[in-house]
Every structure is written in structure tokens, then in C-alpha cells.
Amino acid sequence: DVRMTQSPSSVSASVGDRVTVTCRASQDISSALGWYQQKPGKAPKLLISDVSSLQSGVPSRFSGSGSGTDFTLTISSLQPEDFATYYCQQAHSFPLTFGGGTKVVIK
Amino acid sequence: EVQLVESGGHLEQSGGSLRLSCAASGFAFTKYPMSWVRQAPGKGLEWVASIAKGGSDTFYADSVKGRFTISGDNSKSILFLQMSSLRADDTALYFCAKNLAHLWLPDHWGQGALVIVSS
Questions:
Q1: Which residues of chain A does B51 touch, with a Cβ-Cβ cutoff of 8 Å?
Q2: Are B1 and B105 in contact (CB under 8 A)?
Q3: In angstroms, what separates the C-alpha of B96 from chain A's closest C-alpha?
Q4: In angstroms, what separates the C-alpha of A69 from chain B's closest C-alpha?
Q5: Whose CA is closest to B54, among B101, B113, B95?
Q6: How many CB atoms lie within 10 A of CB B110?
Q7: How far apart are CA B24 and CA B98, in angstroms?
């Protein structure tokens, strides 16, 4: 199974800050990685697929990078609506696996 | 507009069975792979099961293999999750999800169906 290790588990930030979340896969998953945003009581929302492809309607302040085993989600300038929990997910092989999540909280 | 509406979640006793349904609309149901993902209270996301487009193949997490069955009614665009031998650790919000055409990444999600298993 591919283990997805996400860090940090929580980050405290202010509006306007640059925030970076990392995800490490236990083996090479090529570019089969996505990032999700989840707000309390809501379903997750796919932000980025294929490591760096922004989904339709997602603000350009979100970006993804990486390859192989190390991946990064960056929010260039944090906005009030970005306070949420973020998850990575590998789609390279079954069982599909998610990272443990990163909660972005207000400083 | 893609819509996924789950139903069938409720309180069930340990060892019991339950069937979740997910009514899909706004896209060609037979052309996209589908998945179930669950989230225990206060916890992260856990993939449960997936079915290839048209129902040609199915995949399961080890934690549910042999107990859960994913299937679809292509004529009615409904996804199912038949759950049996339920355990307390199956308690979760179960999301139905449509995947991207080219990758097992859910790009649309339902609102979730709550399953509570009492021991």
C-alpha cells in the first residue's frame, strides 16, 4: 500500500500569508496526486489533480508541485475562505490512500 | 450540473446490514468511475470502494473487503454500497463520489450518508 504522509498536521496563519503543505508518498506515484479542501460539515472539494492542474473555478492562489514521492500545495496569499482542512490523495494504485490532513487555522 | 444524492444511512446494530444508494445526475453515469469514501467523526478521509466505468471492475479497502459490495444500476444512474457484518468502526459519514475520467480522483461528491453502528 502507498502511505501518504502529510505535514504539518496543523498550521496557524494570517490572511495574506503564504502557506505550504507537503505530502510524501512511500513510493513513486508519478503524477497521480490530488489535493482537496474540506470545510466543517461539507464534502471535500477537489482543488488540484495530476499534481498541478487547477480544477475549474479554483482561485489561482492555489498551486501544486512535485513529482515522484514529494508534493506540495501552496496557497500564495491566504484568504478568509481558505481556512479549512486540506488532504492529499494518491491515485496511482489501489488501495487509494489519503494523507492525514492539514488544518489551516487563523493565527 | 453534476449532482450526487446519497440515501440509506441510519443507525444499525453491530453485525447488521445496510444498503446505501447514490442517485447521480448531470453526467453520463456509465462513462465515469465511481467511489465511496468515508469519514469517521472527527477523523480524516478513508477510501472504501471504487467501481470502474460501466461496472467492469471493482476495488475495495482491506477493512471492508468481503463485507461490502459496490455496484451500480446503469439504467437508473444509481450507485450502491451494500454493507454487511457491520462493526462499530464502520460508523462514519459515507460519501458517494464521481471520479475524473482519467484518474481515480473524486471531482464531485455527494453530501454524505451517516451510518452509525451500535455495539
A1: none
A2: no
A3: 10
A4: 17
A5: B101
A6: 25
A7: 9
Q: What is the dihedral of CA A36, B46, B79, B26, to 10 degrees?
A: 0
The rounded mean pLDDT for chain B is: 97
Mean pLDDT of B76-85: 98
For every residue of chain A, DSSP letters joined together read ---EEEE-SEEEE-TT--EEEEEEESS--TT-EEEEEE-TTS--EEEEETTTEEPTT--TTEEEEEETTEEEEEESS--GGG-SEEEEEE-SSSSPEE---EEEEE-
Q: What is the pLDDT of residue B54?
A: 85
* Min distance B103 CA to chain A CA atoms (Å): 6
Question: Given CB atoms, is A43 within the 8 Å cutoff of chain B?
Answer: yes
Other Cβ atoms within 10 Å of A92 Cβ, number = 17
Query: B18-38: per-residue pLDDT in tens?
Result: 999 999 999 999 999 999 999
Find the chain B residues whose C-beta atoms sit closer than 8 A to any C-beta of A: 35, 37, 44-47, 50, 59-62, 95, 100, 103-107, 109-112
CB-nearest to B44 from A32, A91, A100 is A100
DSSP bridge partners of B34? B51, B98
pLDDT band at B112 (very low <50, low <70, confident <90, very high): very high
